[in-house]
Amino acid sequence: MYCILIDDDAIFNYVHEKTIRNLCPDCSIKTFLSSRQALTFVFENIHEEVKNHAYIFLDINMPELTGFEFLDEVIKVLPDFLNQHKVYILTSSLNDKDKQKAESYLGLKGYLEKPLDKEQLMQIFE
């Protein structure tokens, strides 16, 4: 299994990586503090490193590209990206407009509030 965490908050990335590792010790996990670096990684490596689908957990409010801008850029180049990978918005935003915007992305698997817990991950990984 392959997981990508994209969040400008190092503490949340650390906590989420540990939570995933507790459930899946053999998972490959890649973390990014920069949405722009994550975008570059996706364009350059996603097809080579990820043979099947990846689980991608994406924050909304980030300085370089918001989570929505990240998705827009990926979809421009890789239109089937949301159907090929399991992408979740993972945010502390309780803004209804953010949730509505997330629902407009066909293929997005969910809108989750931080922090991820073991029970949520167990359901996601089933």
TrEMBL record:
Biological processes per GO annotation: phosphorelay signal transduction system
Residues recorded with modification 4-aspartylphosphate: D59
Q: Which keywords belong to this entry?
A: Phosphoprotein
The record ties this protein, via InterPro entries, to: CheY-like_superfamily, Sig_transdc_resp-reg_receiver, TCS_response_regulator
Response regulatory domain: from which residue to which, for each copy?
2-126
- Classification via Pfam families: Response_reg (PF00072)
Q: Which PANTHER family match?
A: RESPONSE REGULATOR RCP1, RESPONSE REGULATOR RCP1-RELATED
> Know the name of this protein?
Response regulator receiver domain-containing protein
What is the species listed in this Swiss-Prot or TrEMBL entry? Flavobacterium fontis
